[in-house]
Amino acid sequence: KSKIKNKAAKINAQVNEALQGGHIPSDEEYEAKAAAESLEKEVKRNKHIIETSISICLASTKEKIVRNNTKVLMEYFNKSLKFELINPYTDQYRIFLDFIPANSNYNRDFIQLVPMETLAGGVFGASDHLGDSVGAYIGYTVNGNRKVYLYMGRATKLNKSPAMGIYGNLGGGKSFNANLIVVLHVLFGSSALIFDPKSERSHWADKLDFMRDLISIVRLTPNDEDKGKLDPFNLYNDNIDEACDLAFN
């Protein structure tokens, strides 16, 4: 908090000095003043402010490629995202040391005080977009009340690996959402493999009678009747070559 107050006081002093001298403060000074005031408000609301320094390292076996990639990246950030990115030639070595994971901060010239939300929203791939533009409806966003659709089969068509994470508090509907997504994908033609250690879905074959023929349940217990169920030579007892391949892999 004291660092933010000192920074704000310094900026205000610069603006007042310009006004007293009969000069008009620059746009950069006014923008800095507004940013400092915004940070002060964030701190008063008990928000956490983080000292942040971000460095990006580009590598290649050829210097020309590195320089071209640097130019493209800077144009993307500075022009498209309106996010200032600089390439200080005299600080390259210290910035490279900053880039090494778990290393100390060697260059404090580019430290920024930013809220946690700002930092999280500035990382690569950060987005408030959930789901996909096609697929089944699975819910809506709390902020914005936007509908969320998902069809994981579309990822493979785009040569991408489908992935999904479900997070939430106890009793918040994580299992229900996972069950809904699995059933919807199976109805659209997908195949699902579920590891269910608590047997929460053991009744599906009886309750979901409309897809009973699509459900196969394999129980694995320490009982004698379940021993050897995952043995490749039991799974492929009529095809020794397939059994050998599975055992080898």
TrEMBL record:
It comes from the Bacteria. The keyword ATP-binding applies. Pfam families: AAA_10. Keywords: ATP-binding, Nucleotide-binding. The keyword ATP-binding applies. GO terms for molecular function: ATP binding. InterPro entries: P-loop_NTPase. This is ATP-binding protein. It comes from Clostridium tertium.
